[in-house]
Amino acid sequence: GQARPRPGAGRMSTARGLEGALLQLETLARRGERPSHYLARHLLIELGQVLALGPAGAAVERARAAGNLVAPAWKSAVETELSLACGEFAQSLDPRALALPGYDLEYTRTARTRLGDRLRAASELGFQLQPREVDVLALADQVFEAFLRQRGEEGGSGRPAEASGSAPASPKRPSRHDAP
Q1: What percent of the chain shows pLDDT beyond 70?
Q2: What pLDDT does residue 165 have?
Q3: Is 103 left (phi over 0), alpha (psi -120 to 50) or beta?
Q4: Is the pTM of the predicted complex or chain greater than 0.90?
Q5: CA nearest 86: which of 128, 34, 55?
Q6: CB 121 within 8 A of CB 47
Q7: Are the C-beta atoms of residues 21 and 43 closer than 8 Å to each other?
Q8: Residue 153: pLDDT above 70?
Q9: pLDDT value of position 169
Q10: What is the secondary structure of 101-164 as a DSSP string?
Q11: For 98-108, what is the mean pLDDT?
Q12: What is d(CA 133, CA 117) in angstroms, rounded to the nearest whole number?
């Protein structure tokens, strides 16, 4: 049979990934180098996963301290990454793709889960989605929930409950699709 993972093995793996991302950010910051959105992605996903398991005060403080050393560039990298992640999730819900028989629902679920990880971490680090991304995410979540309901899969969008608080839903705006 297959070997079973040790209890806590996922937590250790996530902690190792977070430590690697933090060391990268700290090294770049000490050198005064510009962090990329790829590093922001790595750190936000890893930190978000750790935060989903519980508090991570020391890691959050390390990320804040390193980010502050290269503040404008780090802010730009995080904002770029959040924007790209929102766009990825929203684009995965293109109606033309949803209509295809081979639509990759797991890709969309994973994209939303990872976006939730990023949002959870970004919130802890003091970053917020731009208003445009808040609107895009709210609409994408509505489309995804409607798609899942249509398939008979109420809920289960992959949207972490904690992450939904990180991206407040915008007020419902009237749409030509609303019932009269």
Answers
A1: 78
A2: 38
A3: beta
A4: no
A5: 128
A6: yes
A7: yes
A8: yes
A9: 36
A10: TT--HHHHHHHHHHHHHHHHHHHHTT----HHHHHHHHHHHHHHHHHHHHTT--S--S--HHHH
A11: 93
A12: 16
Query: Quick one: DSSP state of residue 82?
Result: H
Q: Which amino acid is at 124?
A: E
What Rg value do the Cα atoms of the chain yield, rounded?
18
Q: In this predicted structure, what is the pLDDT of residue 151? A: 87
CB hemisphere CA count around 126 (13 angstroms): 10
- Distance CA(152)–CA(39), nearest Å, equals 38
Check pLDDT > 50 for residue 149. Answer: yes
Longest dimension (CA), the chain: 59
Q: 167: closest CA among 139, 128, 132?
A: 128
User: Coil, strand or helix: which one is 44?
Assistant: helix
The whole-number pLDDT of residue 72 equals 96
